Amino acid sequence: NGSAVGAALAFSGVFGAVMNPVLSHVISGFSYQVSLRLMAVFLGAAVLPCALSVHLKEESSGEIRTKVEGYEPVSAPVPLKTIVVLYSTCVLFCMLCGMNQHFSALAVSHGYTLEASATVLTCSMIGNIIFKLIYGFASDRVNPVYVSIVWALIGTAGTLLVLLFAGSGVLIRAGAALY
Q1: What is the rounded CA–CA span in Å between residue 130 and residue 174?
Q2: Is the dihedral of CA 114, 166, 120, 47 positive or negative?
Q3: Residue 178 has pLDDT above 70, yes or no
């Protein structure tokens, strides 16, 4: 199961890896307004058919019901501590997932051209794809907790490379790939 999840998550980053340099080239050649309009048209054309294909049933009340064999659903209040921990985890996860989007701005602030800074983000996306595939494969063979710890350490090393050596083209890209 881990390999399948890893593959599915890995291919979610393919679009970002491909489109970052393309959009940076369009921004340099025209303007950011033109590139945003082109991106909106492209995404609309890609998303609209999917959105229109969703059919909601009238009897659906918005509840998600799952049946697990041997377990009956229980209606019980959720402790505040659980809600706070869950919310905090979600916020930190969103921050972690979005931080690499600022790598290109960091590169520009260190004097890189827009196109060169886009390659930093592309390295991050390619590393993301590769590590998700490895993570899924490794999780099937080793305890997923250990895999997560190693992944966190690699990500921390990547973050340190990006933050401490942003002036070096090779090291910022290597750090972005490890992030």
Answers
A1: 13
A2: negative
A3: yes
- Secondary structure (DSSP) of 12-67: GGHHHHHHHHHHHHHHHHS-HHHHHHHHHHHHHHHHHHHHHT----TT--S-----
pLDDT tens by residue, 3-55: 777 777 777 677 767 777 777 778 878 887 888 788 888 878 877 887 777 66
Tokens of 29: 């050649």
Residue 153 to residues 39, 82, 94, 143, Cα–Cα distance (Å): 35, 26, 18, 16
CA distance 155 to 132: 12
Tokens of 33: 């307004």
Angle at 101 between CA 97 and CA 102, to 5 degrees: 120
